[in-house]
Each structure stands twice: as C-alpha cells, then as structure tokens.
C-alpha cells in the first residue's frame, strides 16, 4: 500500500507557533506524528515524504527508525538533514491512476491534461487546490499520512458531477 505525507518538520521548534500546531512541545509533536503514522502504515508499506521532513542532521535517522514503512524522501525547502541528493518529483501509476508528487504545488505537471493527480506540501493547508491537486502535508490530515485509498476517495468526492 502507498502512503503520502509532507512537512513533518521534525526538530523544527518554531513550526508549532508558525502553523498553530496543537502541541505543547516538540516532543509531543514528534510522538503524535510518529504514533499516527505507525497507526496506519505497515512495515511493508511505501511512504512518499514530499519534503520538509526534518531540520536535524544528527538525529533524523533516529526518527526514521521509529517510523513504519519503506520511505522515499523528496527534496523540500528545509531538507538539509541528508547528504544524499533527493528527488524533486516522484511519479508512479497506481491502479491506473498517474500520480505526481512534489514539495511544491504546480500549475501544470506531467500528464495533468490526462487526469493525473498532483500531490504537494509546503503550503501547510493555506493554498487552495486546483483541479486534481491535494496538499498532503500533515497539517491538512490531523497529523496522519494519506493512504492512496484516502486520496482516491477525496478526488472521487471532489470530482463528482
């Protein structure tokens, strides 16, 4: 199963204030995001993180080890925790649906004129989606990742006639 998420901002002290996150401490935020993640993601599931995963170069691996799933990390605007070059865009067709994931929302994206979905982060729920786009940041889903089925259901509802 595939899951999608973004903008966890592990070890970013000020994100609680900037985004009005309902946590009293960075530890409480970490525990909630990790517990919510592990509640829905299994060990063999694939998780696409669309950027801004962590601010800490030294402790990020500890967080990753606590998270279920196999992880694919995309480059965000604050991802200096890894020396690896991260992908800017991830694309895959799942159950006949083409999906494009990036940290940033795009006006057009690969196969957008053929009904592909574009999943993005960065905006923390403040950017209204257009057409087949969805902000997959943790701030938009009660600090849970979105499953593919979740997203399919959302688009089905939004695109009903």
Give a description of the structure.
With 161 residues, the chain is an alpha/beta fold. The chain has one domain: Purple Acid Phosphatase, chain A, domain 2, CATH 3.60.21.10. It is 23% helix and 20% strand. It has four helices and eight strands, in the order βααβαββββββα. The chain has helices at residues 15-18, 26-40, 60-66, 148-158, and strands at 2-5, 46-49, 70-73, 89-94, 97-102, 117-120, 133-135, 146-147. The strands form two sheets. It has a four-stranded mixed sheet. It has a four-stranded mixed sheet with strand order 4-5-6-7, with no helix packed on it. The longest helix has 15 residues, at 26-40. The two termini are 28 Å apart.
Largest sheet: 4 strands, mixed
Number of strands: 8
List the secondary-structure elements in sequence, H or E.
EHHEHEEEEEEH
- Could you say what the CATH topology is called? Purple Acid Phosphatase, chain A, domain 2
Total number of domains: 1
pLDDT < 50 stretches: none
Instruction: Tell me the name of the CATH class.
Output: Alpha Beta
Taking the alpha carbons of the first and last residues, their distance comes to 28 Å
Query: Helix tally?
Result: 4
**Fraction of residues in helices?**
10-25%
Envelope shape? globular
Give the name of the CATH architecture.
Answer: 4-Layer Sandwich
Using only C-alpha atoms, the radius of gyration works out to: 15 Å
By CATH, the superfamily comes out as Metallo-dependent phosphatases
Strand content: 15-25%
Q: Classify the secondary structure makeup into a structural class.
A: alpha/beta
Mean pLDDT: 93
Numbering strands along the chain, what is their spatial order in the largest sheet? 3-2-1-8
């Amino acid at each position: 199963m595939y899951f999608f998420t973004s903008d966890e901002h592990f070890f970013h002290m000020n994100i609680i204030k900037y985004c009005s996150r309902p946590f009293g401490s960075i530890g409480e935020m970490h525990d909630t995001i990790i517990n919510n993640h592990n509640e829905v993601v299994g060990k063999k599931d694939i998780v696409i993180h669309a950027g801004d995963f962590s601010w800490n170069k030294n402790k990020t691996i500890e967080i990753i080890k606590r998270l279920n799933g196999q992880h694919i990390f995309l480059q965000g605007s604050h991802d200096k925790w890894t020396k690896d070059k991260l992908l800017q865009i991830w694309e895959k067709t799942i159950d006949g649906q083409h999906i494009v994931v990036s940290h940033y929302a795009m006006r057009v994206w690969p196969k957008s004129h053929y009904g592909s979905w574009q999943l993005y982060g960065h905006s923390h729920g403040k950017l209204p989606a257009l057409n087949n786009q969805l902000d997959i940041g943790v701030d938009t889903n009660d600090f849970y990742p979105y499953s593919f089925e979740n997203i399919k259901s959302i688009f089905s509802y939004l695109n009903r006639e």
